[in-house]
Write a structure and sequence with these properties.
about 230 residues, alpha+beta, Glutaredoxin, 5-stranded mixed beta sheet, 10 helices
């Protein structure tokens, strides 16, 4: 076979390059199409959140009577070591044992410490929807800092929650608006750390001791009983 002329070599190289470019384009468009299909499937199969009613947005997990003369509100985070330490201190249980329904305790999510905290807060609200908030709340603090998505779902199963309902609630972000609501409230109080508390409108920054809370509660209850 005679040797190719320089012109033929150039033509052959150009043709080969065009074929390679065409192949690259085909592969690129195929990958783009595959990604688009995956995104579409994920979007269609991902649970969609059910908008929360005004009544649900107004409800928070709580202990004690709604007519109690003292209301303690805790703004807290499941990924917060100080919040976990306050929980483990047993201060809340001492309050309940000492005052019973005369003091109302309200939980508000304030997930500002770790990147996993907001989803853990949503999980707590999903447990609340199934009537097991405090059991789930206690388990999260017992297991923290293991509060990844898979952990959150495993804890729900451990407590006997409906796993399909819980997972749909968590995956859809159904309670994200509720978590955002309480987080915004905490910021409006000027809190930039957790835990933080409000007792009958009085701000308390940091975890209070039982004695500190008692010094606030007793005068209020004494004044109420004398009226």
């Amino acid at each position: 076979m005679p040797n190719e002329t320089p012109r033929n070599k150039i033509r052959s190289a150009n043709q080969k390059r065009r074929q390679q470019d065409k192949l690259k384009s085909t592969i690129t468009f195929s990958l783009i199409g595959l990604v688009a299909v995956i995104i579409a499937v994920f979007t269609l199969t991902r649970p969609r959140p059910v908008p929360l009613s005004a009544a649900r947005m107004a409800i928070d997990p709580a202990y004690g009577s709604e007519t109690a003369k003292v209301t303690i509100v805790e703004y807290s985070d499941y990924g917060c070591p100080s919040c976990q330490a306050w929980h483990n201190s047993g201060t809340l249980q001492k309050i309940r044992d000492t005052y019973g329904d005369r003091v109302r305790f309200v939980w508000k999510d304030f997930p500002i410490i770790t990147s996993a905290s907001p989803k853990a807060a949503e999980a707590g609200q999903c447990a609340f929807d199934q009537g097991k908030f405090w059991e789930y709340h206690d388990l999260l603090y017992a297991k923290s800092p293991a509060i990844g998505i898979n952990d959150l779902k495993a804890y729900a199963t451990q407590l006997g929650l409906d796993p399909t309902r819980f997972n749909n609630c968590l995956d859809s972000g159904q309670n994200s608006s509720k978590v955002d609501q309480s987080t915004n409230e905490g910021h409006q109080f000027g809190f930039n750390g957790a835990p933080a508390f409000v007792v009958n409108g009085k701000r308390l920054v940091g975890p209070p001791s039982f004695e500190t809370l008692k010094s606030i509660i007793d005068p209020i209850l004494a004044a109420a009983s004398s009226n």
